[in-house]
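Dear Dr. L.,

I hope this message finds you well. Following up on our conversation about the binding site, I have prepared a predicted three-dimensional model of the protein together with inosinic acid. For your records, I am including the exact sequence and ligand specification that went into the calculation, followed by the structure tokens. Please feel free to forward this to your student if that is useful.
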Amino acid sequence: MKTKLKVMEKIKVKKIISKSQIQKRVKKLSQTISRDYIKRDLILVGILKGSFVFLADLTRNLKIHHQVDFISVTSYGSSTRASGIVRILKDLSVNIQNRDVLIVEDIVDSGLTLNYIIKNFKTRQPKSLKVITLLNKKKKREVSIPLKYIGFDIPDEFVVGYGLDLNERFRNLPFIAKIEK
Ligand code: IMP
Ligand code: MG
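The resulting structure of the complex is given below.
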């Protein structure tokens, strides 16, 4: 019974990027992508779950024809984290061979997750393979990742909101916030 009575821990968050800042940036990125991918065979691949809000805004701002798909991955746990091996929980539902793939990520930190996904996708022979990330945390990067489009560079702080979570909380915030200690 004790576990059932567990109340939600009070966590304070502090806004660091506002809703209007995000919306403005997403519009600008969408314009650039619409220009770069004109007359191409664009498929946006969102990495679940964190990218779902960003992808939803991107797709609605794009002025060109494109397809949307998702992949869901999980890392093998902290002890093997350095190996960068991730497990695919839900794979793509379409064939990306010969297509222009743009991976949509919420945040790049060590880069290990994306490094694995990029390697994996390359074996499927897409025509082109690029990455867009809303947030870029460079400080703890362990592997170099080519990022074609970046929303915001941020310092090494744990952030939530606009799809990003802390134990599944705060994904619904319309802004990006840091966790207050
Ligand atoms: P990486 O493999 O270290 O680059 O980790 C990337 C993944 O870790 C992201 O896709 C997020 O799911 C998660 N992550 C990293 N930093 C944060 C953060 O500050 N807030 C929420 N999730 C994060
Ligand atoms: Mg993610």
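In brief: The pocket of inosinic acid (ligand 1) is lined by residues 50, 105-113, 158-160, 164 (CB under 6 Å).

With kind regards,
A. P.
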